[in-house]
Design a protein that fits this description.
The structure holds two protein chains of two kinds. By secondary structure, chain A is of the alpha+beta class. Chain A folds into two domains: 4-233, P-loop containing nucleotide triphosphate hydrolases (Rossmann fold, 3-Layer(aba) Sandwich), CATH 3.40.50.300; 240-350, Nucleic acid-binding proteins (OB fold (Dihydrolipoamide Acetyltransferase, E2P)). Chain A has nine helices and 20 strands. In chain A, strand 9 (203-208) and strand 10 (211-216) form a beta hairpin. Chain A starts with a strand and ends in a 7-residue tail after the last strand. Chain B is mostly helical. Chain B folds into two domains: 1-62; 75-291, MetI-like fold (Orthogonal Bundle), CATH 1.10.3720. Chain B is 69% helix and 3% strand. Chain B has 14 helices and two strands, in the order ααααααββαααααααα. Chain B has helices at 2-37, 42-48, 64-72, 75-106, 112-121, 127-140, 158-161, 168-180, 183-191, 196-204, 209-224, 228-233, 242-245, 256-288; strands at residues 142-145, 148-151. The longest helix of chain B has 36 residues, at 2-37. The radius of gyration of chain B is 24 Å and the shape is flat. The mean pLDDT of chain B is 91. The chains are: A alpha+beta, B mainly alpha. The interface between A and B is medium-sized, with 27 and 20 residues. The structure holds adenosine-5'-diphosphate and magnesium ion (MG).
Chain lengths: 357, 292
């Protein structure tokens, strides 16, 4: 078991700074997810933790050791790759035992550990197959099994589910959550999929362009995003952003208004904004409801029926389009006028610099 | 629609087979001619070349030419020398060049790009241009053998082997193949604790079957066909390879039948090698699932 601590971590590739000073603390036994759009540096960060990539600057601590200059095998980590990276010329058994074979472990120990990993992942019947005889999900299981056999302090996953089809991905997600509960090991998991992040994580680290945008629990990020990027990235469908101007500010609230949303009093204390400032109001599709105060009026342009809910695209007076999640059995049609109520206490407010108020 | 497509497919298959068969025939006819001629007396051999009889075992057929060839030259010794020199060079070359390529592709070190470029540049240097300098160097190199330290490599096996172990083409083949191996496999092995040596032995080489076969074939042919270099550095019959041995048959009386018999004999190791590699090649693709 081990905690992982990144302090001022930087990475340059040929003079270009890819990771720009990252501070993250992962507690012992915690499931931490690094999430961000493709190319933001998640894999680079994970590979630096694994020791596959040199660290340009900063300090990396695993357990209570600074490991910046230790080779991967001495870092008490195991890694599961996106391409699975299981050895095609070895049987599943040989794949699982690879690390132990390398370390010249006695046969009895190898057999015991392989058997245990196979039991945990329910793949005892696959042990003598070759990877070419396995399905994608089974291969991924072998990759995870190989990590389990190492009994590492920290498991590292780089988009392990992205090569699987959608249904299998949901199953494997649940298995990973269960695995974490069973093993109680520290896990760091990289994904570009915010649903995976929300469902798996104890703690989410949102990255963009090599910078940590916010660290928090899934619900913290959902309800109190620190900036426009996080607000737009976390949650599905995306949060609606509406331009507005500050009309009044006092110690416990701020009043904003625009032709689209009328006048809205948001219960936010000590907002650092002046009357007339341009701001952005963020409203989640699930926080807009039909009827009631009728704050927002618009015309329906698109209806997506999902059964449990109805995603409806609405064009407002200014021409801006927003998405609303309405109940599943509601009757709406394209062209129809809708009046929506906002929930002021759940709305987010972002100042001109993009930070949350 | 489906029927048309499958018809079309059948036609394409037919054309493909026809072309391949034609090529096979073009390649096999000289071999058949060689084999048939080796069974005939010179007089008949020459007249037969005016008709298709040249490819048929007809007329006065015997193994006389083979006995004569063995009387004229130490055929067994020459084949032994060539197989020894070629075999050792192939093995050493595969080991050395794959190790070099491994270092170029997987390990990060200063100057590797430059050095690889230099090695690839040697591909455009013809052997003839370096033959004389190489001869002068070889003539003065020391060697530690059974007789203690000696000077000069002329008239030996090592002079036919060592200069050909490392070569740009073989390194290039391995480099290209290694670059196409999934990098995450190597990284996974590193994370699991494998040293570079173990990555080479346990991961990279077991997956290198196709490139090993390709490199081995090219090297085998180049080495087995060596002529100029052994002609320059070997004067003693004891170390003479097969191609230089051909000279024995081009003296005053040119015995074509014996030449054909000699050629047939020295072709046997080549065919054996091909058959062996073909099996190894298919087996390696079947077991790894990685295509060449
Ligand atoms: N070996 C490399 N050399 C140069 N640039 C690289 C290298 N590896 C990654 N990058 C760059 O670093 C950035 C982050 O890459 P990566 O960490 O793979 O992103 P992610 O995993 O978040 O999609 C990308 O812009 C990528 O082009
Ligand atoms: Mg990535």
């Amino acid at each position: 078991m081990a905690r992982v601590s990144l302090s001022g971590i930087k990475k340059n590739y040929g003079g270009v700074e890819i990771i720009k000073g990252v501070d993250i603390d992962v507690a012992d036994g915690e499931f931490t997810v690094f999430v961000g759009p493709s190319g933001c540096g998640k894999s680079t960060l994970l590979r630096m933790i694994a020791g596959l990539e040199d660290i340009t600057g900063g300090t990396l601590t695993i357990g209570d050791r600074v490991v910046n200059d230790l080779p991967p095998k001495d870092r008490s980590i195991a890694m599961v790759f996106q391409s699975y990276a299981i050895f095609p010329h070895m049987t599943v058994r040989e794949n699982l035992a690879f690390g132990l074979t390398i370390a010249n472990a006695p046969k009895a120990e190898k057999d015991a550990k392989v058997a245990e990993a196979a039991r945990i992942l329910q793949m005892e019947h696959l042990l003598d197959r070759r990877p070419s005889q396995l399905s994608g999900g089974q291969r991924q299981r072998v990759a995870i099994g190989r990590a389990i056999v190492r009994k590492p302090g920290v498991f590292l996953f780089d988009e392990p589910l992205s090569n699987l089809d959608a249904a299998l991905r949901v199953d494997m997600r649940m298995e990973l959550a269960k695995l974490h509960a069973d093993l109680g090991a520290t896990m760091i998991y990289v994904t570009h999929d915010q649903v995976e992040a929300m469902t798996l994580a104890d703690k989410i680290v949102v990255l963009n362009a090599g910078i940590v945008q916010q660290v928090g629990t899934p619900l913290e990020l959902y309800h109190r995003p620190a900036n426009l990027f996080v607000a737009g990235f976390i949650g599905s469908p995306k949060m609606n952003f509406l331009k507005a101007k500050v009309e009044a500010v006092d110690a416990t609230s701020v009043t904003v208004g625009s032709p689209d949303i009328g006048t809205l009093v948001l219960p936010k204390a000590n907002v650092a904004a002046a009357v007339g400032d341009a701001v952005t109001v963020g409203m989640r599709p699930h926080h807009l409801t039909l009827g009631g105060a009728q704050d927002i009026t618009g015309r329906v342009v698109l209806v997506e029926r999902l059964g449990n809910e109805t995603l409806t695209a609405i064009v407002l007076a200014s021409g801006q389009q927003i998405i609303v999640a309405l109940p599943g059995d509601i009757e709406v049609m394209a062209g129809q006028q809708l009046h929506l109520a906002t929930q002021a206490e759940r709305a987010c407010l972002f100042l001109a610099n993009g930070l949350a108020a | 629609m489906a029927a048309i497509q499958s018809d079309n497919h059948g036609l394409r298959l037919f054309v493909r087979y026809a072309v391949l068969t034609l090529i096979a025939v073009i390649f096999i006819f000289p071999l058949i001619f060689m084999l048939m001629s080796s069974l005939k007396p010179d007089q008949q051999l020459l007249t037969d070349t005016e008709s298709l009889r040249a490819f048929l075992p007809v007329g006065d057929i015997s193994l006389d030419n083979y006995f004569a060839a063995f009387r004229r030259a130490p055929v067994g010794l020459f084949v032994f020398n060539s197989v020894l020199v070629t075999g050792l060079t192939v093995l050493l070359s595969l080991a050395v060049c794959s190790l070099a390529a491994f270092a170029f592709v997987f390990i990060d070190w200063r100057g590797r790009e430059l050095l690889l470029t230099l090695i690839l540049a040697t591909l455009i240097v013809p052997f003839e241009t370096i033959a004389i300098p190489l001869l002068l160097i070889s003539a003065n190199l020391p060697w530690i053998g059974l007789e203690g330290i000696t000077r000069g490599w002329l008239n030996s096996y090592q002079v036919q082997i060592v200069p050909f172990i490392a070569d740009g083409l073989t390194i290039f083949l391995f480099v290209q193949y290694f670059k196409d191996l999934p990098g995450e496999l190597i990284e996974a092995a590193r994370v699991e604790g494998a040293s570079w040596g173990q990555v080479y032995r346990k991961v990279v080489m077991p997956l290198a079957g196709p490139v090993l076969a390709t490199a081995a074939i090219l090297k085998f042919l180049a080495m087995y066909n060596q002529y100029l270099w052994p002609l320059m550095v070997v004067q003693q019959e004891a170390y003479r390879p097969v191609m230089v041995g051909l000279q024995y048959f081009f003296q005053l009386n040119r015995a074509w039948g014996e030449i054909m018999a000699y050629l047939s004999l020295i072709t046997v190791p080549v065919l054996a090698f091909y058959l062996f590699l073909q099996r190894a090649f298919i087996a390696s693709i079947a077991s790894t699932g990685i295509k060449g």
